[in-house]
Amino acid sequence: MTFSAHRQEIPGAEEPEPWPRGVSRKPLLSIGQVVSRLEQEFPAISLSKVRFLEERGIVTPFRTASMYRKFSEADIERLRFCLTAQRESFLPLDQIKDRLDRMDAGEEVAVEPVARVVASAGVPVQPVDGSVITLRELEDYTSATDEELETLIDCGLIQPDQRGRYPASAVRVVRQALALRAGGVPLRSMKMIGTFAHRMSHAALSSSVVQKGSSSVIAERRRAQSQDIARVASELVQEIMRADIDRDL
């Protein structure tokens, strides 16, 4: 089998060996085999996710003469490092890539990713509520691929503003949608969830009426009332689903 030579299998003596060192760099694994190796640890892994991480520079697989990707054990370790940092620490991809670049250059960087948390609450850091983020930042916070985000946009679960930016809450929506997908729920089928949620939020706003107070006070009271209605609606959906599951099993 012939491999293209755009990446050296054994770096020259003048350059440090890329991380991880001492791990085989023989390009023997197909992209499907890589997914099979990692899916038990990372159920949300997919072919498109591996391609996306390749595009972002996390791995650079060999290409055969027919342009098929071939991965090594070292590539799997780099993917494992990246996926662990995203899952455990919610690190954006640009920070993970920077850490890998420093490790490739021979710097002593902690292999175990350090969780970015709010010390007082232990909650993973994400954009401040009320702020807006770009599509690339949304990708970095959630590790969602372009295809996954496009599907969620088409399904109405997340929507950009007129300038193409997204509310900070979109990070939680995308993470929860990907968690559902990992549990076996296709992203496309989540359109009904988005439709139901939008209708219920409209009903909640229509039901919350506050007549007295300044405009800011009225808005805050309506928000609080609407959130109470949303909480009850969520609990109602859970109870209906539990009843359906108990009946059908």
UniProtKB/TrEMBL annotation:
Transmembrane regions listed in the UniProt entry: none
Listed SUPFAM superfamilies: Putative DNA-binding domain
Pfam families in the cross-refs: MerR_1 (PF13411)
Region annotated Disordered, chain positions: 1-22
InterPro entries from the UniProt entry: DNA-bd_dom_put_sf, MerR-type_HTH_dom, MerR_fam
Keywords: DNA-binding
MF (Gene Ontology): DNA binding; DNA-binding transcription factor activity
Domain HTH merR-type: 50-102
Protein name, UniProt field: HTH merR-type domain-containing protein
Native source organism of the sequence: Boudabousia marimammalium
